[in-house]
Amino acid sequence: MKTIKQVEVTPVFCEDGVPEIPSQYEEGKVYISKNKDWMAHNCLFGCGSFIMLPVNQNPQGWQLEVDDNNKISLIGSILQYDCKAHYIITKNKANFV
Q: Which end of the chain has the least Cβ crowding within 10 Å, N or C?
């Protein structure tokens, strides 16, 4: 797949779990629960939709990797139905395909 757009993301590791109110989310930030079992963010394409994903809970589901520099990569893509965005997060970059 060819990357058509790339957006830098900033991971935010949350001690008390991810915030449950979408209005508390800042654009370009990906919120990750302390146990790394949930990840949430506003759509990185900019449509404003709220996305919450269970990660590392199922071998066939999304897998979140955090490297030694706290850069995140998500195994599995995100398909946002409202704006038709499709992206993969690799080393703090959302690659739109």
A: N
